[in-house]
Every structure is written in C-alpha cells, then in structure tokens.
Amino acid sequence: MDLRLLRNFVAVAEELHFGRAAERLHMTQPPLSRAIRRLEGELGQLLLHRSPAGVSLTPAGAALYDEARELLDRADRLRSRVAAAAGPAVLTVGTLADSAAEAGTALAAAYRERHPGVRVRVREADLADPTAGLRAGLVDVALTRTPFDGTGLVTRVLRADPVGVVLRADDPLAGRADLRPDELADRPWFRLPEGADPIWRAYWSGPRGPLHDGPVVRTVHECTQAVLWNGTVGLTTLGHPLPEGLVAVPLTGKPPSRLVVARAAGDPGPLVRSFARLAAEIYRTAPPGGAGGAGSSASRTGRGAASIRR
C-alpha cells in the first residue's frame, strides 16, 4: 500500500475538508481527490461520504484512519532509526590553496539554509593538485581552477579572471600598467612540484631552463615568501588583496583563469547536485568585486592587489 496515499487520506480524515487538506499537503485539490479515489479503488471500499455540507468518514474509512495513523507513525520511526544508524549526512568540499574564500559567505549561507542537517567539511589542497582531492576520491565536489586534465570529471565554469604577474613592490617593473611574457624572460619563476598535472603546470609555469628555475612551491604562503625574499616571479589571478610589499601587474596574452565547480562524472547524488547548482546561481548574480564576484584588475598596489590563486 502506497504510504503517500495513506498520508493524503489521513489529512482529509482529520480536516474533513478537501480544500484544507490540500493546503496542508501543499498540493491542489484535484490531484488529492484523485488520490483518494485511487485508494478507494485499491481497497474496494468507500472511505468518505462527500456532500455539499462537507466530508465524513464511512465505517470503513474510520477503521482505515486508525490503522493508517499507526502505520505512518511506524514508518516515520523507521526512517528516523535508519538515518540515525547511517550517521549525519556529510559533504566534503575541496578547495585549492587559499581559495576557500571563493566559496563566499553567500554560498555557505545558501547551502546551510537548503540543507540544515548536512555537515560540510572543507579540505584545502596544495598547488600540486588542481582537482583539490577530487581525482583521489578525497572530496565529493571541488571549487578549483582550470586548466587541468578533465578525464572522468565534470566541470562548470563559475567565473573567468584575468591573470597577472606577482612582483615585489620595489621591482622596476612593478609600476607598469601591464607586462608581456617576453619582458620577464630573464627572471626566475615559481615551479610546481614534479608529478603535478602537466596541463596545469604548463599554464602556471614560466619559461623553463636554469635561468628561470625558481623555488618549487606548494602553497600560496611559499609563493608570496619567495617573491618577498628572492624576487621570484609567479602568476596570479587579479582582484584580491596581496600581502604588504607585493603587487600584481596584468599579463598580456595570457588566457583568463576559470574558476569552476568540479565533480566526478556519473550520478553525483543530491547533495553535490545542489552544491553545484547553488554555486552557479550565486556566482551568476554576484557583483564584480563582491563575495564570489570577479575583482578589479586595477591591483598594482600592496593594499588592493591580487592574491595568488590557482
């Protein structure tokens, strides 16, 4: 016996009015009437007397009401026991480097409101893994940046950000409005760890060779310290604050960096689907420079410059 039909019947039996019962069930009256007729047809019994004065229970309806209430209560208790045995629902979100802030307060608030009983864990990956733990199966969904090998993954672009070069504030090139890659050909550049995704490394790395081989970096903090102490050059997205003493200069000819929400191919489950859908909605409506919005490219001062995000 369909529990939904029993819930519909119990609502009518308690309200003794189809209109009020439909309101209580958040449905319209015609499908509720059809549901009751279907239940009567399955049982072969008239359950309700319908008249201009209202609705009343037949003897068969009264008997069904008592049994249905008990059955629905048992079903609810069973559902609660199964949920308790399974433990609380958990969604693990991977973020890259210091990009946890990319989730933004709006996305976190929207997800909490939509799924108040879900615990969300945030796992921060280093610069060696552009999938932020997704490919290794450590997270359910990731907020990260392309390009990387997308085999077996599904990505949805949330935003495209211009890319610049991170320099020390006292660097002779720090005051430029923009720079070309060839103007930095004699500088040491950050290097990403061996084994990192080759597409990812090719996008974020500078020229190769002994002259250009700066330190290998795994975290944003290592990147900024390499610039401050050694004048190393690296790439960054524009529009976010940098530590004191660093600036970001737009780099011409470089394709933008795309912030994406990524998940494994196949059916991701309702929690991941909801996260990806909310992320797309929030980033689509976020104002430039706001939480989750694209920042200004006028970021050549230490106070209003870009943070290193990959």
TrEMBL record:
<feature type="domain" description="HTH lysR-type">
    <location>
        <begin position="1"/>
        <end position="58"/>
    </location>
</feature>
<dbReference type="Pfam" id="PF03466">
    <property type="entry name" value="LysR_substrate"/>
</dbReference>
<dbReference type="Pfam" id="PF00126">
    <property type="entry name" value="HTH_1"/>
</dbReference>
<keyword id="KW-0804">Transcription</keyword>
<dbReference type="InterPro" id="IPR036388">
    <property type="entry name" value="WH-like_DNA-bd_sf"/>
</dbReference>
<feature type="compositionally biased region" description="Low complexity">
    <location>
        <begin position="296"/>
        <end position="310"/>
    </location>
</feature>
<dbReference type="InterPro" id="IPR005119">
    <property type="entry name" value="LysR_subst-bd"/>
</dbReference>
<dbReference type="InterPro" id="IPR036390">
    <property type="entry name" value="WH_DNA-bd_sf"/>
</dbReference>
<keyword id="KW-0238">DNA-binding</keyword>
<dbReference type="InterPro" id="IPR000847">
    <property type="entry name" value="LysR_HTH_N"/>
</dbReference>
<protein>
    <submittedName>
        <fullName>LysR family transcriptional regulator</fullName>
    </submittedName>
</protein>
<comment type="similarity">
    <text>Belongs to the LysR transcriptional regulatory family.</text>
</comment>
<feature type="region of interest" description="Disordered">
    <location>
        <begin position="286"/>
        <end position="310"/>
    </location>
</feature>
<keyword id="KW-0805">Transcription regulation</keyword>
